[in-house]
Design goal:
Elements lengths: L2 H17 L8 E2 L7 E8 L6 H20 L7 E8 L4 H15 L3 E3 L4 H13 L4 E4 L15 E3 L4 H15 L5 E6 L2 H14 L6 E7 L7 H9 L4 E5 L2 H13 L5 E4 L6 H8 L1 H4 L3 E4 L13 H13 L8 H20 L2 E2 L1 H8 L28 E7 L4 E9 L2
Parallel strand pairs: 1-12, 2-3, 2-4, 4-5, 5-6, 7-8, 7-9, 9-10, 10-11
Antiparallel strand pairs: 11-13, 13-14
């Protein structure tokens, strides 16, 4: 072979390499994805007992995808989003997921709210190998890559929150006499499990625990019993109504106790103001997101952007609604992983990208908070912040605390 021939052959080979894209660069699609659109779906409680959470959050999600589409979509593809009402009913949730998968032809179901609907649809979506992506439920059961590899949560699980609170107690009040008030379901039990695990050898410092049912009209009697147990630290994992009641009751009893409430009930506007700001003074909670109604973030640019977005795309929504704030974080995460997928819009790659995040920070997250996931551990949040209420706003206390 002559030198000239060799050079010509080399140039031809190089030209062919440049013209023909490598195999990994070829576009790949699962049902619900194409060159022009990405079909996503969600069932949410637009009616029923949890409609107060689902309706506002649902409108925010719809508005966010509208905004994305106005700006060209994701990687040049518009989002075709279908939202159906599950009425916070397990049978209805399964029915709606079937419609989304078998009739609408979605790539993934995203951001579904609540334990009841997500438990109901988990087996179905996993059997169909359809991503149940970034669900808003804190049950530990949703982090189970071996049994349910297609279910990826995006909310600090309640066991993690309990562990973080335990670490805070051990550091700031190591001799605490602890009483626990918790909701008698996975929401409360997972938290209690984490609290006990985090206390370790100090678990015996839990002097008393009292539970209540979600349907109970009041928790006043439980608070009276806990006070009678002579505890100096009250830790509770309650729903919004019960949390507001307990804050008021502790204040009415003139009970000088360290009172720690769950992060999901720490909204200044929707929980603390109804309970009474003076009664709320001194409360402690876990946090991972900035609170839009908190004066501490009044001039924060991310908070301003969040409020401006809602004003334009979901004007009927209360920006201080905690479920709306979580939904806003959630859609940012969905956008993030879809961008990471590029032209490989397969269901397998969507799960791969969602479970290989490394220290990603989303808008509205507190300083020091980020999310990370691994193929064998889908729990995104490993670290939370503690905050103390001063009567007007929450003040961050100490450094971020890891549950690990």
């Amino acid at each position: 072979m002559t030198l000239a021939y060799s050079r010509a052959w080399g140039a031809l080979a190089l030209s062919a390499l440049l013209i023909t894209p490598p195999v990994w660069a070829q576009k790949a699609y699962s049902p619900g994805a194409s060159d022009t659109e990405i079909k996503l779906g969600q069932s949410t409680p637009l009616s029923g007992p949890a409609s107060a959470f689902g309706a506002g959050a649902g409108r925010a999600v719809v508005g966010y995808f509208e905004m994305l589409n106005e700006h060209g979509g994701i990687n040049g593809r518009k989002i075709s989003f279908t939202q159906l009402d599950n009425a916070y009913s397990a049978p209805k949730a399964v029915e709606q997921s079937r419609k989304l998968v078998e009739s609408t032809g979605i790539l993934a179901e995203v951001g579904t709210i609540g334990t009841v609907p997500n438990v109901a649809i988990q087996k179905y979506l996993n059997s169909k190998k359809v991503p149940q992506l970034f669900i808003t439920a804190g049950g530990r059961r949703f982090n189970d890559p071996k049994t349910f590899p297609w279910t990826v949560p995006l909310y600090p699980d309640f066991e993690t929150e309990g562990r973080v609170v335990a670490k805070y107690i051990l550091k700031t009040k190591p001799d605490a006499k602890i009483g626990v008030l918790y909701q008698n379901d996975d929401y409360g039990k997972d938290y209690l499990k984490g609290l006990r695990a985090g206390l370790g050898s100090k678990e015996s410092q839990i002097v008393m625990q009292a539970s209540y049912e979600l349907a109970d009209p009041t928790i006043d009697s439980q608070i009276v019993q806990l006070k009678a147990a002579n505890i100096d630290t009250l830790i509770e994992q309650s729903s919004s109504k019960a949390a507001a009641q307990s804050i008021r009751k502790v204040h009415e009893l003139n009970w000088n106790v360290l009172h720690i409430i769950g992060g999901s009930t720490a909204s200044v506007e929707t929980i603390l103001k109804p309970a009474g700001l003076e009664a709320s003074k001194g409360l402690v909670t876990t946090q991972f997101l900035k609170q839009p109604g908190d004066p501490a973030w009044a001039n924060d640019e991310e908070v301003k952007t969040y409020k401006d977005f809602l004003k334009k795309y979901a004007p009927s929504v209360n920006p201080d609604d905690y479920s709306v704030l979580v939904a806003y974080m959630n859609v940012h995460a969905i956008e993030l992983v879809l961008k990471k997928c590029g032209d490989q819009l397969t269901r397998e790659n969507l799960i791969r990208q969602a479970t290989s995040l490394h220290g990603e920070r989303l808008p509205m997250m507190l300083p020091g908070i980020s999310i990370s996931t691994k193929p064998d551990d889908y729990a995104a949040f490993k670290t939370l912040r503690m905050a103390v209420f001063n009567g007007e706003s929450w003040t961050l206390s100490g450094d971020p605390i890891s549950a690990e």
